[in-house]
Amino acid sequence: MKKFISFLTFLLSVAIALPVAAEITIEKGALYMIRSKKYPDAVMSFAKAENGTAVQLKSADKCGASCLWNVADLSGSYRFINPFDNLSIHATSADKIEITENNGSDESQLWKLEPVAGNAYLLVAANRPEMAVKAVGKDALVLVSKAALKNDK
Fold first, then answer.
1. What does the DSSP assignment read for the chain?
2. What was the pLDDT predicted at 1?
3. Is the pLDDT of residue 40 over 50?
4. pTM score
5. Is 139 helix (H, G, I), strand (E, B) or coil?
6. Greater model confidence, 104 or 28
7. At CB < 8 A and 24+ separation, what contacts does 37-44 make?
C-alpha cells in the first residue's frame, strides 16, 4: 500500500509549497497527496468528513483516505476532490481552508498553481488571486496575502 500511495503522491507547493515538476500534468482519476514543501513529511488531510472541517497537515504515513485527492483540471484552475467522501478543498471568506461538498459551480473550490522556486508552487485561491495557502505550524493551513509569503521559507 505504501508503494501505491508513494507512486500516486502529487507534490504541489502550497507556500507550505507543494513540490511538483515544472510542467504540471494531471492524470484523470489518479489519486494524489498534496505535500508541503515546508513540512515535507506532511500532506493535506481532514479529520472528519463534514462540511466546514478544517483542512490540515498530517503525517503522510499516518493518514488514510482523507489525504487522497483527485485533481480536476479546469482550464487553468484546479479542484481538489476527495473521491471517497465527495468533498473539495475550499477557501472561506474568513481566510480558512476547509472541506465542503463538491459543487461544480462553487468558485471557492477553484485553485491556481503559481510557480515560486525550483519545482514548488503556491496554491492560490482562484476567486481571490492575491491570497495563497500557508502552513501555520505543522498542522494548520490558512489563506494569507501572497505578499506576506515572500520571506516565508
1. -HHHHHHH-B----SS-EE--SS----TT--B-BB-SSSTTEEEEESSSSTTPBEEEEEGGG--GGG-BEEEEETTEEEEEETTTTEEEEE-TTSBEEEEE--TT-GGG-EEEEE-STTEEEEEETTSTTEEEEEETTTEEEEEEGGGGTT--
2. 46
3. yes
4. 0.82
5. coil
6. 28
7. 37/13, 37/120, 38/135, 38/152, 38/153, 39/135, 39/138, 42/16, 42/135, 42/138, 43/9, 43/67, 44/14, 44/69, 44/80, 44/89, 44/141
Strand partners of residue 77: 74
The grid cell for 124 is 492560490
Which amino acid, 69?
Answer: W
pLDDT digits (tens, 9 = 90+) for 57-114: 999 988 899 999 999 998 889 999 999 999 999 999 999 999 999 988 889 999 999 9
Instruction: For 84-110, give the DSSP string.
Output: TTTEEEEE-TTSBEEEEE--TT-GGG-
The three-state secondary structure class of 60 is: helix
- More confident position, 9 or 79: 79
Q: Which amino acid is at 66?
A: S
